[in-house]
Amino acid sequence: MILVLPIILPLLIMVVLIFTRRWLFFQQAFSILASVVLMWVGFLILMDVQQNGIKAVQPGSWDAPFGITLVADLFSAIMMVTASFVAVVVMIFSPGFIDKERQTAGYYPLVFGLLMGVNGAFFTGDLFNLYVWYEVMLTSSFVLIALGGSAEQLRGSIKYVTINFVASIFFVSAIGILYGQAGTLNMADLADKMRSWDEHTYVNSALMLFFIAFSVKSALVPFFFWLPASYHTPPVAITALFAGTLTKVGVYTMFRFYSLFVVYDQMFWTLFILTLAGLTMFIGVLMAASQFDIRKILSFHIISQVGYMIMGLGIFTVSGIAGAIYFTIHNMLSKTNTFLAGGLVYQRSGSYDLKYLGGLYKAKPLLALLFFIPAMSLAGIPPLPGFFGKFFLIKGGFEAQQYFITAVAILTGLFTLFSMVKIWNEAYWKKEPEDVKSRGKVHPATIMATSLLALAVILLGIFVGPVMELSMQAGEQIVNPQMYISAVLGK
Amino acid sequence: MTTGLFLLILLLVAAIAPFLRKYLKHQAGWIYALWPFAGFLYYLSLLPVIQQGEILIESYEWIPVLGLSFTFYVDGLSVLFSLLVLGIGTFILVYAGYYMRPYPMKGRFLGYLLLFMTAMQGIVVSGNLITMFVFWELTSISSYLLIGYYHEKPEARASALQALLITGFGGLALLGGFVLLAIPYDSYELTTLLSDGDVIKNHYLYIPALILILIGAFTKSAQFPFHFWLPGAMTAPSPVSAYLHSATMVKAGVFLLARLNPVLGGTEVWSYSLTIVGVTTMFVGAWLSVTQVDLKRILAYTTVSALGTLVLLIGTGTEYAINAAIVFLLVHALYKGTLFMMAGNIEKKTGTRDIRYLGGLFKYMPFAAIIMILALVSMAGVPPMLGFLGKELIYEASVAAPKAHLFILTLGFLTNVILVFLSLRLAIDIFWGKEPVYDKKPQEPSLSLILGPFLMVLASFVLGLLPSAMAGPLTSKAITAISPLHDAIILKLWHGFNIVLALSVLTLLSGYLVFRYRHQLLPAIDRFNIRYFRREFTRVFFSMIDAFLVFTKLKTRALQHGYHRFYLMTLFVVASVMVWVMIWRADPIILELNFSDMPINLIAVVVLIIAATLSAVVSNSRVVALICMGVIGFGITIIFIAYSGVDLAITMIMVETLMIILAMAVVYHLPKYQNFSSTGARMRDALVATLVGTFFMVLVLQAGTSTLDAPISAYYKEASYSLAFGRNIVNVILVDFRALDTLGEITVISIAALGIYAMIKLTKKTN
């Protein structure tokens, strides 16, 4: 029953935190502790799945497909471990960064609300239940963006919530339509049934609604607008948490759906996914290059990098999927890390705008290093993990003879390097400008959190062998959905 | 010791170097040089083993699931390059330790130099394409950090960016090329690749792989038209120019070509592209150096020219050419490293690198002058320096080149004339020319600054005098590594009277003549250049970047424009187009529309709903529109009741009532209603709404028509009382069958409540 913990634990933690929200120190300490426990639970699940194969439980003791099934395979376990690690880091970072008012107004319970939704989306094996977890995520992230109530935040959060809400409408309509056709909500059951029918291609129309919904959630081109409109508005710790979780849940779900439900007209779906991937990678990175606010550069970058993950999905070979999984892990860590490094810059210089930044390389070498590591990782410089992610995807792409998309991926790498170096040249190398906003102190907790994450990035590069082995096994499970179906239905 | 261990320790030295600098004070350079020097001795000691044709291979497990290991491969070529990298590196560290004294952040600087050394040494001993690529990119990054050393100067940042982008572009191409190259072999191991070059040559991926790999090599080795980053990189401190940008890193591309020659070489495409690019670079580099006045830029352009020569020779691929390539590589590293270090010394002692403001230095620093002049003699290709042998071999190779030898020979001759001229000019102008007023009296450089140049010139001299005894063992196995069929030619100073000797003499003579009439010639060349090469490549490069930025800005504004309604419209339009495409692609299904058993009262309700919808759309009053929405909601409630969904109906009534009340309360606070949108805009919106609405209708009708499998709800009917002990199926579903959904929904409500609380509390505080 350990599979219930990723959902129930955050709920209980949230309840405790809601009732103790005035005790600042308790909130901070308990959140760190709780997130560590969550990560540990994730590890236990990962070990269990790796040893005993895909694991399915029926929390209400109603057999599938009648109750709601929770399923853990390697990919979902990997995603949970990574997401909870990001949470641990953000929880260490937050006390030193977020103002007291926000911290006591419900910031910590909201974070665990978000994590509950994230974990639910990773482990649920049921279409409607998935929708519920997406709602949990959407509500808590909406409140987190708006928390504090500055005009900028409200503007951002409105765009965030409406566009995502439209996606939710598509999502829930698709569930209804598909239920009307197939009469089931259990994902494994539906996947099994789809494979037993004759080719009913009109099921694909409902499937398309799902993919549009998840494209919005993963911020693919042309559905990404909510992300750059909102991500730069809340305190950067919140953005960092989002960067490590939200869009990646969308990506995760796309993988799951593609693996289970893309049965008819596969040629079309490959083309569809790869087109989205190419557009997303390239347009995202071009938009990043034009920005001058560190958070905006990084936000547009999230979009571009999601394109890489989706490219791995479109290739849909074991090595392509494995590459995408490794890339996703790397991206969750490195991307969060760059946002946190941006937070350090803000503490020191009082701005995210490159115009008002400078001189940090000379004055604060540690801050420079803490940005340089994840930034170079994102730019794909070896031996950091970003390089391996890119390499695996290029390898997978060329081996699957998808030359065009792979060429786009390679070219995107150059522009990524450009925009990372742009931040470096301006914020760190340039002489400190006369009109620097402030010269604040950097809180030790934030340094500690960022260093911890940077260390994790380096370790992910060094231990590429074992992680890749795990990703290959996870890729195997994604490419052969029969394992998932049998684990749930017991046949 | 092993190569892996050596590199690991070198990396550690690089990592701790910045921190130890404080304690080691000015001795840091000497102390950090110890480990590279140990490495130099180690590879020197390997020479006899390598001479016997042995190849040392080390392999470490890396990514076993992809069959990828971290492999080192040490053969004659690796040893030759290792000796250059570590030998010159030792001198450079000693030199840099002293040279950088007055500057800040010396520790970081030395650390980067050592990091670069690790990376460069890694490239030359890599036994695996991916291993090599890792080191390859590391050299680009350390080069970036070193070029940008004076990072507060805008031009240093610009040059560093330019170098990084160009080598980074090459690096990406190279990675693509490596992946393609490995596909037919299913291996990245050098041993596998070298064992059979025909596998790739007969594969359809040969041309794309070759092109990508050549882009990688050409950008790194500053070949035309990518050459311009190298002169730009001269903004770096002199130790960097001497080490990275003349002696080692820029040779990485040449090394790669040499390394892969047995795999990729020998085809028409290979030899044509290398020859054409090489010969162009050789001449363009030399030509552009003529009118430069900055000592380091002159040297940088001649380096470009030398790199072109090397590429040309590898492309030519005959026995003579390969021999010439290896000897010239050695020659060039020795004299160019020396010249750059001396340029740094001169700048340090006089405060300028502009040759127009230098002169008469011989009497101030005679020892240094002799060293520099000997290096220039080597550059001019005058006996007895090793440079003479290099030039002779190049001429010999050009004369015997299989294709277009006249063309190559002519440009080669002109290039060498320019080199002779430059040697004369630098030697005579700097050391004897008109003496300007120096701020303070120039002095002889101290030991740390002069030791490296001295020993390198000495090496060049000794190797030149005793070529067969000394240079032979060093080069012979490198030559067979590049081209297994070829052997080392026995090197001699005196070849007898032949056409090559005649060419040599003619070169010297012409070089002297150019020098003699330089005051007439140079202005003319300058005018010519300004007229025909007005646009410098660097400027073109940066205007391209600017144009790119403008383009991205426009594009961003077009996409992320900030108008919320257009975001939503894009979403709806694209989504409906995609769904319509899917509907169109799917096999047609027959929709059975049967209204006959629909009771008349329900039809009335439906008509009412439709009417309410329409009036909500066209109404000019918010209140009316809201009431219409209410009608729609209650109409749907009635339909639920008609199909006996009582629970749903009750919920719906509550939700509808609350929503209408809340919305009415908000309306009170809203500004007066005004209609801003034009008729056109409204028509457009109507079209979008129709697109979306109709596809939803089609999908819903499809779902209603086609039931593909028995729905699970049958089970609920059966089990809800017998197993779950509840009479109300909907309730049982909510609290038992699908209790987890309910838990989630309750959480959503709680979070929303928490959000409202937080917003109210925080806004109060800020007010």
Description of the molecule:
The complex is a heterodimer of chains A (491) and B (767). Chain A is mostly helical. Chain A has one domain. Chain A contains 20 helices and two strands. The radius of gyration of chain A is 21 Å and the shape is globular. The relative contact order of chain A is 0.11. Chain B has 767 residues and is mainly α. Chain B has five domains: 264 residues, no CATH class; 249 residues, no CATH class; 59 residues, no CATH class; 73 residues; 56 residues. In chain B, strands 1-2 form a two-stranded antiparallel ribbon. In chain B, helix 15 crosses helix 17 and helix 29 crosses helix 30. Chain B starts with a helix and ends with a helix. The interface between A and B is large, with 121 and 103 residues.
What's a quick, concise take on this entry?
The complex is a heterodimer of chains A (491) and B (767). Chain A is an all-alpha fold and 491 residues long.
> What count of domains describes the coordinates of chain B?
5
Largest interface: A-B, 121 and 103 residues
Radius of gyration of chain A: 21 Å
Q: What strand line-up does the widest sheet of chain A have? A: 1-2
Number of helical segments with 4 or more residues of chain B: 31
The N- and C-terminal alpha carbons of chain A lie at a distance of 21 Å
What's the end-to-end separation of chain B, in Å? 71 Å
Please tell me the overall pLDDT of chain B. 89
Q: Give the DSSP E fraction of chain A (strand runs of 2 or more residues).
A: under 5%
What's the multimeric state?
Answer: heterodimer
